[in-house]
Amino acid sequence: MAGFITRRHLSRRTVLRGAGTLLALPLLESMVPAMSAVPAPRTRFGAIYFPHGATMSRWTPKQEGRDFGFSEILQPLEPWRSHINVISNLGHPLAYGPGGATGNHNRSSATWLSGAKAASGAQPRLGVTVDQVAVKYLGQDTPLPSLELMIEDASLSCGEGLSCAYRNTLSWQNDLSPLPMQNNPQALFEQLFGDGANDAQRAARRAQALSLLDSVTEQIHDMDRKLPAADRERMDRFLTDVREIERRIGQAGERVNGHVTLPGKPNGIPDDVEEHIRLMYELLALAWQTEITRISTFMMAKELSNAVYPKSGIRDSFHILSHHSNNEDNKARFAVLNRYHTTLFAGFLERLSKLPDGEGTLLDNSLILYGSGMSDANSHNHDPLPIVLAGRAGGALEGNRHIAQKQLTPMSNLLLAMLDKLGCREQHFGDSTAPLTI
Amino acid sequence: MRRLHLHRALLPACLLLLVPPALQSQDLGAVTRQYCTSCHNAEDWAGGLDLGSLDPAHVGHDAETWEKVVLKLRAGMMPPPGKERPSRDETERVARLLETRLDAQVASSPAAPSLHRLNRVEYANAIRDLFGMQVDVSGLLPPDDASNGFDNVASGLGISPALIQGYTTAAMKLSRSAVGDMTATESTTVYQMPANLAQDRHLEGMPLGSRGGAAITHEFPLDAEYHFSVRGTFALDRNPNVKVDVALDGQRVEVRNLRDFRLPVKAGRHVLTAAIFDVRRPAGVDNIYSVYKVEGALDSVEIGGPFNATGPGDTASRRRIFICRPQSPQEQQRCAERIVVNVATQAFRAPQRLEDLGAIMKFYARGQAEGGFEAGIQQALSRILIDPRFLFRIEAPPPGAAPGGAWTINDIELASRLSFFLWSSIPDQQLLDLASRRELHRPDVLAAQVKRMLADKRADALVDNFAGQWLYLRQLGTVTPEIEGFDENLREAFIEETRSLVQWVLSHDRPVTELLTADYTFLNERLAQHYGIAGVRGSHFRMVKLPPDSHRRGLLGHGSILTVTSTASRTSPVIRGAWVLENILGAPPPAPPPGVETNLDGDGTQVITASVRQRLELHRANPTCAACHGVIDPVGFALENFNAIGAWRERDGEVPVDARGTLVDGTSVAGLEDLSVALMSRSQLFVTNVTTKLMTYALGRTLDHRDMPAVRAVVAQAARQDMQFSALVLGIVQSPSFRQHGTAPEITRLAARE
């Protein structure tokens, strides 16, 4: 845990020197603000996923360090160079395992933010994801602790004995609780800004919702005594979430008051996939701008997606093309698709760069992970992963760098380092061995 | 191996030559030694299995393993090709002996499902049956995850804050719509036509003589004015050759400007039709189904409103809710109590006493104080819709039940299990009445109810949800074939054909094996053309008798299955073969090991002259691949005469199609007909597989080896009725597993299937 521990030790040594001891004391909450390089509390955290990896030879920049030359796939990000770090040679060892191609696809999205092993069986079991760790620090005072978004419908059939949860979400609250992702912009809009035509109606409905949830809470307390133990456990889970929604609704009223102009409510899901993706990015930017949430995960496509992107100029379906047979021409065409996805992501960065936030822009105050849990979909491997960091994390992170790590550096080391940049003091994350220096 | 020789020495050598019809356990030992343990031993450990260490006299000790052995034998997969194997009869006898032994074991208590919550489909159906409202809950509730192939498996149905948020929003919105929401503000719904829908012909449900267009069923919230906008491609509304007729519930309405008009509409569900008529057509030809190439198609229909609402109207939901109308303020309380007891009884699926509904009546009181009687009812309904008694299928242990033990569920709980199995919804009054009188569990009553329920329209849910997931029909909604000739019309026709066959077999007491052999199918003109079957005109589906030389007998000749098992651009014998093994025989092949090359498409820009088959043959020359693909591919090869959207073909690219292959059990097949014969020779396995899947769906939990005796009992019982699909359903309902709530820990994988 080189970088991270060192810095923490340094800080603590400063504090503890007077006591003449170097005991590994638990970090006190109150010490956090005193530490140097503590990021602004308003940092937004995003993780944006594309499946099937990329043509890595056309992804990885040739030079390392500052002022590197952008690669073909990443070139659309060049206008935001000062807010971009490309991180190379990371891998996810726990994404390897049995189950052949399908298993590897499932684990790509499952392991990406968890650094944990996906269990087989009807009961999905993984581990808490990095966004949900950040929620503990940055999501407690926002109406929505986090927002989970995707484009496609949830898969319904993922093979016998395999849960679809691994492919349907990036975000896990704990090892047993995958968080479903929203793909309907209209439902997302209501989730963000409430149900109702005006402030008064929204307020009245919030009050109603609160009393409903309150009443259910009481009822579950009464029921619990009569239920078998296994059922009680599940009902308690229900109750926890009921309380959580009570809390969120309680806060929601404070957020959307007057200082943002809301766009028109979207009508369902756009037919055109590009329009759909752009709309989700737009709503995401709006959610961050209003601080309805600060933490979001977004799956632009799911593993094994056979989406076709007519506007990319490539007519092949996504997953099929990713099996390029090591043919240079196929790899080049897959790179065109990869670059197209980068373009859509760049559109989001452009939006963030235009929204003022505090002293700077929303892009300055964001930390966004962009990448995949697969490297080369032709061989279904999980290193080296295509990974980019965007945003300056409120000043905690520099930009304009291509940071090449040692080969097979655990991706979880980066996730741990990102938590640190967000001000989330964790010793360890997933299968991390040490935080990356970024 | 040493240990093995010792065993062999103890046995008289002649025994192997005299395997009698009724096998004994020592014979079983001998058979395994002759055919199995040269690979499945402690040293070679093939497939992670050492059969030599197991005692066939006591199969109960290793039931999980022996169930796997039974499956491999029944499927003809073991011993593998090239090894000495017993005759088919002998294999069957061994399998039967093992099954008899396994079935004789004292069944351990059935695994308890986790506390079951309603999934999205069940929730929407419950709302339909409670209030007579069709709702699209996909915008209200988060999607459900499927486990073991079905999205009603309790352990896979997670609970999350998003879910609670969804339940809360849905409870408030739906209760407002049910009662009629006078505070409703304008909202717009856009119905977008699929981009790939051909609108050059008549579509089912549209006026005769029209082409394309749409009939949209919309719930109008109030008696009010609504805004409509009908948009087309190629300036549909200004093309002098085309006329667009708009009708509401079949009544034509005069419209000046298609893109912007208003109509007064009564609250409730209405059908808006936008039909396209080509004005200039030659006289004297069949003007019903003829094809005219006039440009212009319907693109979208927008419905906005309500404006200037005059009242909640007389909707189906209001008729169901307001079973009484207070004539004076004094009557309000009593009437509210009657309404709440009535709705709660249906929603909670059990008779309710007023004293148990205090929390709900509080919401009535609050709403009544704020906005009068109806506002009170609306608030009470919102409370019912978020009640755990509605959202969860709670089965409580009877008084005196031992903690941790299994118990027989009561009639009220049985009513719910039945209705969620067959209707994916809540029980109706008749079921609840029978349950309240404790008659439902009686075998004759139960059989009569299953018959009644299967004949009910609500049983469509069994086809949509069970067959839709079992046969991957749901995936057909999202596949994007890039083959000339595929469009939305064909996609919809594919789904309808397979739905209709399953529906027919189920509701007409036909043998379940007819799904593979039916000498009839269900077609409309579009699909018949695709199949090259003459004489089917028009957009509606009808049963069509297939000629003896037809290639469309049974599911495996259906465009739906053939498409969903292909890639976007070509057939995949591997996917098709694996699909048959998994979904027809219930013996899924293992997934390919990581890192293997699975792409056959090569360079997409070059012309591929080798057929898919030839490319696969190359790949099978590799022994690592051959072990599994020798089993999978021949099944898929037999279907190579169907292209990636199920059209018949004689050539694959430049190469003539070769649909020959040798199945793992040595049977030579060439084409679908041979394959069907081969599969039917293992029809027992097919029926067992359907039963296993159906039981998983019925119980909403993963099955494991402990359930296999129960599965076989259902099959054995159905065998007396010609393996009728309906007999399987009844057998499952009457099985102890369906009647019991157990508390054994759930095993997470169907062990017999690994």
Treating each run of at least 4 consecutive H or I residues as one helix, how many helices of chain B?
28
Helix content bin of chain B? 40-55%
Which class of secondary structure composition applies to the elements of chain A? alpha/beta
CATH architectural category of the largest domain in chain A: 3-Layer(aba) Sandwich
Strand order of the largest sheet of chain A: 2-12-3-11-10-1-7-4
End-to-end gap of chain B: 26 Å
Number of helices of chain A: 11
Our Rg estimate of chain B from Cα atoms comes to 30 Å
Sheet-strand content of chain B, in percent, reads: 5-15%
State the end-to-end distance of chain A.
13 Å
Average pLDDT of chain B, rounded to a whole number, is 85
General shape of chain A: globular
Structurally, the number of domains of chain A stands at 3
Instruction: Quote the beta fraction of chain A.
Output: 5-15%
Query: Portion of residues in helices of chain A?
Result: 25-40%
What is the strand and helix layout of this fold?
The complex is a heterodimer of chains A (438) and B (754).
Chain A: H1 2-16, E1 44-49, E2 65-66, E3 84-91, H2 100-112, H3 130-138, E4 147-150, H4 165-168, E5 172-174, E6 177-178, H5 185-193, H6 199-224, H7 229-252, H8 273-289, E7 295-299, H9 318-322, H10 328-353, E8 356-357, E9 360-361, E10 366-371, E11 387-390, E12 401-410, H11 411-421
Helix pairs in contact in A: 5-8, 6-7, 8-10
Chain B: H1 2-10, H2 25-35, H3 63-74, H4 88-104, E1 116-117, H5 120-131, H6 161-179, E2 187-192, E3 211-220, E4 223-232, E5 242-248, E6 251-253, E7 261-265, E8 268-278, E9 298-311, H7 316-321, H8 329-348, H9 358-371, H10 373-385, H11 388-391, E10 392-393, E11 407-408, H12 411-422, H13 429-436, H14 443-455, H15 460-470, H16 473-476, H17 488-507, H18 514-517, E12 520-523, H19 525-531, E13 542-545, H20 559-564, H21 573-584, H22 612-620, H23 623-637, E14 651-652, E15 655-656, E16 660-662, E17 668-670, H24 672-680, H25 683-699, H26 708-719, H27 725-734, H28 736-739, E18 740-741
Antiparallel strand pairs in B: 1-10, 2-9, 3-8, 4-7, 4-9, 5-6, 5-8, 11-18, 12-13, 14-15, 16-17
Helix pairs in contact in B: 3-4, 4-26, 6-10, 8-10, 9-10, 12-13, 14-27, 21-23, 22-23, 25-26, 25-27, 26-27
